[in-house]
Amino acid sequence: QKFNISMKEISNDLVFYYSLFLSHPTFKVRKSCATFLLSMQNYFPFIRLRLLSFVGTETHEELRVSIFENLGGENKELISPLIQLFHDSTSSVRRLALIKLCNIQGATPFISNYVNEVVSCLKQGVVFSKLYMRSMCIISDKLPILVRPYSDFLIDRILHKSQKTSKVALELLAKLIPNSHNIDIESLVSLLS
Question: 164 vs 17, 110, 160, 168, 192, CA distance in Å?
Fold first, then answer.
């Protein structure tokens, strides 16, 4: 757009060639390249996989998150790289990966397994961390049917944990309570007062 380049002049090969600059040592080159490729993702959907790889390897956190936030696509081929990014060391990247996975129909088995794994860990006495709670909030928003069977159990874990109740715990409670059949009202009132 800035250079008045017609889409007819841009080919798969040219876009792929540009993608090689995602590993350039200079930050400005990587940023310009990633931004350009992001603008081409609807015309050349294959570039989304390359951009996901870039998000996984880029060292500049702000650029990683910015590109990831604007990356589209709900293809099943994105599931595997998104699962890898779900285990990233950066919380915002993990959160975005989970949100994007929730939007891909073929990723539901992975998310269901994750919910089962979290519940299993909690039953074994693992602390109901903010990380787990944030994940459950996202899944409750996007795929509530996966969390609904565990509503009573998760509510009980939040109400009876020894640490101070966080904002994310209250948010999760608000999502779970409408699906609950057996709430300890005394504990809930105690928590909220």
Answer: 52, 31, 10, 11, 11
Q: What pTM was computed for the model?
A: 0.85
Kindly report, residue by residue over 59-96, the tens digit of the pLDDT. 999 999 999 999 998 889 999 999 999 999 999 999 99
Beta-carbon contacts of residue 179 (< 8 Å; ≥ 6 apart): 144, 147, 148, 151
CB < 8 Å & 24+ apart, contacts of 144-150: 144/175, 144/179, 146/108, 146/111, 146/112, 146/115, 147/115, 147/175, 147/176, 147/179, 148/179, 150/115, 150/119
Distance CA 48, CA 27 (A): 20
